[in-house]
């Protein structure tokens, strides 16, 4: 059986004023259905660009992206299968739309009925009670906003969630709640995750395997066991590992 | 005598719904060391830093039994006296370069403004000094950066420019508010090494405001943990894992660990009594 997400020799090139920037260089990996795969790397390493390329939001200059064996497309059918949760819940929700309007929009676009029941169910799924339904984003905390963003991504019951640093704008205790929520939803709905983070501990907690990126290319691949045993070879990975540890006891 | 002594610092905002205390009775002293203030957003850590420079605007107000910096009574000092200390002897690196650098002024002009106006230095020597400081914060092409506007720099570069700007006058006390949270680990390590060097070699005092417990445990000497405007625990940074306060323990427990089990992360249960 082939994997649900197959990325083969993917390259993304941005052209700006005659200058070319190869943001992603020959990246290949695949994610099986119901698996969770992580991408780590510093800013500018191309990890978010891969997520954007999957959604058709970045100029692919080479290679292929296949979802469920077929070339990734854009448009409605694709949106119903693949959804994204963005990093910053302060900018990814429309400031002048209520939670209700935000959650109902995908239903309207895709002509799905039963609006009220679905919106209420979605709020319940992410642990928000019905009183949040007619609030605006500025009336929510960062953690509550990210729950709304997760609820919005799940409105169309997709198979795949692309998670772009979903908890890096959140406090530690709120991050824990959001990660628990994502883990629970993954099991309940059989979701497949492709998650980007700069925090190796978060990736380790959420993902079965991880690719470490630098300058647009994958420099190292690790599974959980190798990571836990200190099997990381790349100096950059080791730096990330050190950043997720406490001081050695004196 | 310590470099800085703070007793019973309070920051209050008068709102329509009555006074809100953002900082409630914080006391600590600082020598030429690296002191961390950690806590979640809203815990009052940034307000504490700003209050030390008397940078709280109305409707906020500061009160304290005592704030003494190198023998100077900061609460009794006139605005003029405080202004003479700000920048020159006490500097603060703000959190976000996007909002803290002047967007319509070239980096070089911002870096040399203080030298030229405060120290009446000539244009050329001011630029040389600024370029040297950019090199000290590991910026490889100081001339290019001096000519750039802030939007032309990455977050990490902007952060280093701000640190360079604050270090030019050679302050005795640096208050750094999340100075590395926008940086990648590689750049973060460089910036921390610069700060560390200043504490060791120049005997600067450093107040390092952060939400990252793991980072401060590696980098700082002492940690104050704040919750709702109060210091709930103070301990040696290297002994953070021996923390006793349930808030500190809760904060540490809810962070995922490499190789940890993948069950649900413990969620922080807050207790009203901690804030009392």
UniProtKB/TrEMBL annotation, chain A:
Family note: Belongs to the ABC transporter superfamily.
Name by which UniProt lists this protein: Peptide/nickel transport system ATP-binding protein
InterPro entries linked to this entry: AAA+_ATPase, ABC_transp_ATP-bind, ABC_transporter-like_ATP-bd, ABC_transporter-like_CS, P-loop_NTPase
Keyword set, alphabetical order: ATP-binding, Nucleotide-binding, Transport
Species classification: Bacteria, Pseudomonadati, Pseudomonadota, Alphaproteobacteria, Rhodobacterales
UniProt GO MF annotations: ATP binding; ATP hydrolysis activity
Pfam families: ABC_tran (PF00005)
Domain ABC transporter: 5-240
GO BP annotations listed: transmembrane transport
TrEMBL record, chain B:
Superkingdom as given in the UniProt entry: Bacteria
Keyword Ligase: no
Its membrane topology: Peripheral membrane protein
GO cellular component, one term: plasma membrane
Domain annotation ABC transporter: ranges: 4-253
GO BP terms, alphabetized: transmembrane transport
SUPFAM superfamilies: P-loop containing nucleoside triphosphate hydrolases
Localization (cell): Cell inner membrane
UniProt entry keywords in alphabetical sequence: ATP-binding, Cell membrane, Membrane, Nucleotide-binding, Transport
GO molecular function, a single term: ATP binding
Listed transmembrane segments: none
Iron found in the keyword field: no
Family according to the record: Belongs to the ABC transporter superfamily.
Protein name: Peptide/nickel transport system ATP-binding protein
Top-level taxonomy: Bacteria, Pseudomonadati, Pseudomonadota, Alphaproteobacteria, Rhodobacterales
């Amino acid at each position: 059986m082939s994997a649900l997400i197959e990325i083969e020799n993917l390259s993304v090139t941005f052209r700006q004023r005659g200058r070319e920037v190869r943001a992603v260089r020959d990246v290949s990996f695949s994610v099986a259905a119901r698996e969770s795969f992580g991408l780590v790397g510093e800013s500018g390493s191309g990890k978010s660009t891969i997520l954007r390329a999957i959604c058709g939001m970045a100029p692919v200059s080479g290679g292929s992206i296949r979802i469920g064996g077929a070339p990734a497309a854009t448009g409605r059918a694709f949106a119903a299968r693949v959804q994204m949760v963005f990093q910053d819940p302060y900018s990814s929700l429309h400031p002048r739309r209520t939670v209700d309007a935000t959650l109902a929009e995908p239903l309207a676009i895709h002509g799905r009925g039963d609006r009220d029941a679905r919106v209420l169910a979605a709020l319940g799924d992410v642990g928000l009670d019905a009183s949040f339904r007619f609030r605006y984003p500025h009336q929510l905390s960062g953690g509550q906003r990210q729950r709304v963003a997760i609820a919005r991504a799940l409105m169309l019951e997709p198979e795949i969630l692309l998670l772009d640093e979903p908890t890096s704008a959140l406090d530690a205790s709120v991050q824990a709640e959001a990660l628990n929520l994502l883990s629970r939803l993954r099991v309940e709905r059989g979701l497949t995750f492709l998650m980007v983070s700069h925090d190796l501990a978060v990736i380790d907690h959420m993902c079965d395997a991880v690719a470490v990126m630098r300058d647009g290319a994958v420099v190292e691949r690790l599974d959980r066991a190798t990571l836990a045993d200190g099997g990381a070879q790349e100096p950059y990975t080791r730096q990330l590992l050190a950043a997720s540890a406490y001081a050695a006891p004196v | 005598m310590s470099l800085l002594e703070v007793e019973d610092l309070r920051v209050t905002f008068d709102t329509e719904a009555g006074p809100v205390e953002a900082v409630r009775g914080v006391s600590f002293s600082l020598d030429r060391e690296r002191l961390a203030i950690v806590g979640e957003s809203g815990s009052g850590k940034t307000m504490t830093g700003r209050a030390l420079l008397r940078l709280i605007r109305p409707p906020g107000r500061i009160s304290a039994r005592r704030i003494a910096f190198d023998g100077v009574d900061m609460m009794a000092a006139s605005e003029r006296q405080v202004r003479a200390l700000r920048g020159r002897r006490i500097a603060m690196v703000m959190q976000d370069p996007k909002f803290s650098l002047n967007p319509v002024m070239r980096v070089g002009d911002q870096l040399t403004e203080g030298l030229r106006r405060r120290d009446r230095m000539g244009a050329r020597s001011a630029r040389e000094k600024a370029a040297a400081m950019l090199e000290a914060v590991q910026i490889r092409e100081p001339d290019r950066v001096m000519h750039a506007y802030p939007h032309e720099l990455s977050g990490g570069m902007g952060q280093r420019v701000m640190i360079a700007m604050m270090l030019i006058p050679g302050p005795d006390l640096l208050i750094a508010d999340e100075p590395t949270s926008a940086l990648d680990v590689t750049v973060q390590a460089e910036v921390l090494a610069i700060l560390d060097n200043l504490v060791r070699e120049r005997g600067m005092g450093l107040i390092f405001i952060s939400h990252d417990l793991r980072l401060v445990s590696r980098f700082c000497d002492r940690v104050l943990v704040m919750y709702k405007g109060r210091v709930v625990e103070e301990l040696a940074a290297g002994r953070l894992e021996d923390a006793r306060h349930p808030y500190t323990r809760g904060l540490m427990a809810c962070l995922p660990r490499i190789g940890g089990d993948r069950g649900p992360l413990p969620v922080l249960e807050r207790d009203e009594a901690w804030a009392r």
